[in-house]
Every structure is written in C-alpha cells, then in structure tokens.
C-alpha cells in the first residue's frame, strides 16, 4: 500500500492591508488580505495615558460586516468632539501594510505602521518586501496627555534609526531562517488533545485532499511543537499519516507557521506587549541587513540568484563602539549571508529546484576594544579582560555548532606579521583560543582555522589574492556542502555533488549543508566582503551544477554571470559597511583583482574620510539609537537618560549590573589560620560592647525595649549616633579606646584590640645586629661612590650638546643648493655616459685583477688534472 503524501504549506498572513480609523476614545485597526475578502479588527484604547490596551476579538469579518461596523462607529461618535475630522464621528488616519510594533518612552505609547513597501525578491511563490516608509502615531488622546520635557528628544532619537533603510519582511516566507531550515519537515509533533481549547486561537484551515482533487474533512493539527507551529481550527482528531489504511492515495496538507529566529528579529522589543495576545496574522517579524536578487537568463531560462544578509541584534552597534564579543558569545557585526539559487520555471518549494549556501561574518570572539578618544586613524587595540580558559570563544563556537553543525571553518584575514603589533595581536589571540578549544572536541569535529594575510599578499607585484581565495573557498565548500531540495540529476558529474544526503518525504533525497564558513578581518567589512564573494563565486558553480545548468563548477571572472554576482556582493558589502562603519566599502573586489582604475583611488580616499568622520562624530549617537530601538535601554523617569550614560557597557554586559555593594567584613585580615572555628580576637568591638552606659541596640525590638524610650539625656544622643556612624565605617574613635567610668564591662586596652606580632606570626621585630648594620653601611657607601660626581672638579652635572652639523637657513621662498664634491660628480658622469654609450672598458687596475684571477684558476685546473 502506498503512503499518503504529506505536504507542508507555510501559513500566509491574511492581514496585508491595514486602515487606521480614529475616534476620540479609540483607534480602530482594520486589516484585510489583498483581495479584501477577509477582515480582522483591533481596538486600541486612547484614554490610557501610560498603558497599552489592545483588544483583538479574533473574529474574521466579511466586507459587508466591516462596512456596517465602520458605519456604526461613525454614527455612534458623530456628535462628539475631539477627532481630526469635523464631518463625521470617525476619521481615517492612514493606510498601511503592516504593524512594526508599539513603543513607549516617558509618556504614552506610539504605534509604528508600514506605509510604503517595495518588492525586492521572490523565493518561489513568496515575496520579500523592503520597508520604504513608516508612520509613528501617538496613541493617547491629547486631552489626557501628560507631557515630559525629554519625550521629544527620545522620539527624535528613535526616528533616526530610519526604518526605511534596509529593513525587510514577508507575509509568508520566514526570512529569519535559512532556506534549508524552512524546507525541513517539522519534528516532535505534540498531539492536539494536549492543548484543548488552544486550537480556537488559530486561524488556518489545514485540508486533506484525495488524489482526484475532492475535499474531505479538515484535518486538525497541533499548534505548538519544536521549531514549527501548526495552526488548527477544528477539534477533530488528526489522522496518523503513517497509517497506510487511512492514508492510501491521499495528499495530506498541513498549514504551518515557523517560529522566528529571535537573533535576527529586530522588532522583538516593539512586539513584546502584543505578541502573546494578538492573532499571529497581525504580527510581522522585521529583519535588518540586505536582500538583493538578480536574474541569470540562460537561453531564455531564468535562474534567480538571491543574497539575504541577516544582521544579528545581539551585541549590535557601530564600528569602534562594538568590538569583540560579550560574555554570552555574541560577537559584534555578526551577519549571516545566504546565497540562494532557484529555477523560476517551477515556483513551488516542494516541486521546484532550490539551492542555498550559508556563510557567516563576525568579529574576533574576545574582549577587545579600541580607544577612540584620540584623533588617530587606527586606534590601538587593547584587550579589556583576560580570558585564560577561552570561555567567551567557547560560548560563541558552541552557538555555531548548535546552529550549523560541524565543521566550523574559520577564515581569518587579519595580518599576522607587523613591524609594530596591531592587528597581529588579534590573530595570536584567536589562534590560541581555537587550539585550546579543540582539546575538548572530537578530532572529526575540530574547529578548522585558516589564516590568510590578505593585505600583505596584495602588496606584491605578482599578487594573486583572488586565486588563493578561490583555492581556500573550494576546499572549504567541499567540506560543508550546499543545500539542494531535490536529488541530483543522473547525468550530473559526481565530483560536483556536494552536501550530506538526507532522505526526505517519499524517498526524495535532498542534500543539506552541515557546518559553516566563518570569515573575519578586523572590521569584517572590506577584506571580509571580498573573501565572501570568492566563496560565493565558488558556491555558485556548484549550485548551477545542481540545477542542471553546468557540467563543471567552474566560472570565469569576466563572464556576465560572475559580473552580476560581483555587483550583488558589492551592494551587499556597501550596505553592511554603511550600517556598521558609516561609509561604503573602501577596498573593493576590483582592488584585489588589480582591475580597479586609477581614478578609484580618489573614491577610496573619500570613503575613508567619510568613515573616519562617522566613527568620530556620529557613532555615539547612532549607538544610543540602536540601544533604544532594541530595548536594551528602556527610558524611566527615576533613572538618568540615555544621553547621560558615560558608556553602554552595562547594557550589553548585564553581569556588570548584578554587582552588589560590599558590606563590612568582620573577619580580621591579619590572620594565618583561616578556619572559621579558630578562636580569635576581633579588631573591633561590637556595638553593644563599645556603647557607654545605657547604650542602645541596633534593633531595640529584640530586647522588648521601645524604640522611642531613652534612659539618658538628650544631650548625649548626638555624640552616641556619631560614634555609631564612625564605627559602622570601620574607624575606631578615642571614645572607644577610653573606658567609661560607669561601665560595668571590662576595660579595653590597645593590646586587647591588636595582638602582638609573636601571637600572630610567631616572631618579634628586634634591633639588627652590629655586623648587619656595618654590612648595610658598606652597601650604601658603594652605591653612593658609584653615582657620585666630583663637585670640586668644576664639572657641571649636565650634558652639554655640541652641534656638529651646519644647516643652511633655507626658507619656503629660496634655498641654497647643496655642494656636490668632485668624486660624486665623477660617479654621476660615469653613470650618465654608461646609459648613453653602454658599458665602458674597465680600468687597468680591474683588468690586472681579472688576469690574475684567470691565471690562478687555470693553474688550479691543471694541478687537478695531474693528480687524476
């Protein structure tokens, strides 16, 4: 019997168009699909000055029902004042394509809506959009608004993040995950019965279709399991897809919704208040980075090449302010770059042919930084914390092994040899950490470290940087493999088949990528982008072979295909460099190919100056904006504003905030036996022992005495409180050393407070012997004689500098020509004549020396022949 064919379909968000309506008391968000046949409504309370109150009835409306609802709201609020429109009770504020989220500073909440979008790429049937413009609207009514002086500054800072610059989203495709993850079948499915009524919260309708196209009863699926989320709508029991009696000749379709990869979701903080309460169709996950797509037309057959770069939101920031890594192993400037190729003839993810490859860039995983307080182009590199056991690097590579598997291949482009150590310190630290961590890994899962001094090699006249990178790329790509969703063609060259085989549904053998190539330099910008292009070029050859386009995975540089890929990676590098470094790429791919025109040097200088200006003057404000956008800093009236913080170290290293203030330690420091059971004399008396007659306890309630009772005069209270404060600070006052006449406690002496040296260390300080004093005197006299100057000789105790060289008084207007001696003139004259007439005859002295040399050589040769 034939098993049922199980097909997983991603849930398409039914809310792709939004209209915002306003009344005095509420905002109404009316969302619909593209065809405006399915509607949902959100109600936002505007009478709450500080809290966010959003109501989602989770009901789908038709177009007629929505028209009636808007009419009812308009009629019910027509007589009220306070709305923007004077003609009716409800006014349309704006039209949008999605909700970015909600944010609050020191007043009420704002809603952020996507008002303009642009299609930038297609992945099969799915579309990826770029945010072109947004609208930020204040929710509370102006009548209840409580103003704060710092509110507008926070708003201006938040809006400077510019959501229209390289923020992307999709209604159906999960761009936070790789194509390999999105096309993998779900695992660990939880039975539906364990969730009960939770199924009513979902809005998808999975269907089971027979082979002849007829529809049967809807199939219910679970709404929660590892990596994926089902969205059921019915309470009927889901049939077992492995039951052949039930599943014969059927196609079972499942609607699934993927859980996003939080590392690459940049609006997580903005969705915190609504993500668990609203229907999933309202939620859009926005990523930051780069998305670009080009078309390779092969005799009328279109192959789409797509590059998706996902910037991590962990330890995010600007160039000089975010270096190295934090304690969780999150590195600065971490970007996951995915190169995807698919045949546009078949757009279905399950039936078409798709291939992808993932590579990574990120800073050296260590605690290092550069001081930008000095106005220098290259600030010195310093290591802030010592990490002898490589815990930070271990956390980082543990994450990579969990996300990508092994092998982890490191391509380190940092310089190895320098006259004055700068970058090379990072190479030494990185290689040491990798060698240390490999001790704890099995040999077949070792971290592979490749060091390539790209800048040094590029300085040579016969430099072939791209050739060397191509060799490294070929070796690394063959180890990690590539992902392709269909089994290879029978005619495909076996040497071009990469990736670990994986049996999918119905015996379909796909190939998956295991492991990742991690590229880095100091900034992870210019050299890194060129190396990633070389890896992408090598990978593209294998991907085109997997799609049946090429026989051999070899691509020439000057072909249209590689030129198109080079432009994609140039745009990719420029975008990431602007986000992290403040300017476009300085050294481009053409620079290392030695094909850049001489006019490009002027552009390189301008980009260098732009990057230097950005790093010096605008990076601090940009870093504050990122911290505010990601929710690392939440404004609070009882805390200083973000612009008053000296550093954001504690925001990215939360461990520093957990340090508590040290309290007084009652254990003495001058002890040789640290056992807590040893009887020892305390350096200071407790309060109850040092207080004078009628002294009070720290807590009078412990003795049953009233805290307001007093047995002494009021005049003594101030002095006692002063003595108490001084004792708490660890100081001993005169009143503590002087016994009270009326006190019934025993007397306190200096010897009782401080034990002798013999009691503690077993020895006493004694006067040195006479012989030792004489020896020390001799030692001092020898030192004085060695450094002594004869004051009676009249020689001053200074160094007199004598000028031996005579310099002319040249100016910028005139100068005295230097004098050239006769010997130098003769040498120059001979040099010129030799260039004009060729080699000249040797002088007699040289000829005589050459004749003697030849004669001696002949005589030695004759003697050697005679000996034979």
TrEMBL record:
GO terms for molecular function: phosphatidylinositol-3,5-bisphosphate 5-phosphatase activity. PROSITE patterns: SAC. Keywords: Hydrolase, Membrane. Residues 186-200, 692-705, 732-744 have a biased composition (Polar residues). Residues 706-719 have a biased composition (Low complexity). One of its GO terms (biological process) is phosphatidylinositol dephosphorylation. It is found in: Endomembrane system. GO terms for cellular component: endomembrane system. InterPro entries: Fig4-like (IPR043573), SAC_dom (IPR002013). The keyword Membrane applies. It comes from the Eukaryota. Its main location: membrane. Residues 158-582 form the SAC domain. This is Polyphosphoinositide phosphatase. It comes from Cryptotermes secundus. The lineage of its organism: Eukaryota, Metazoa, Ecdysozoa, Arthropoda, Hexapoda.
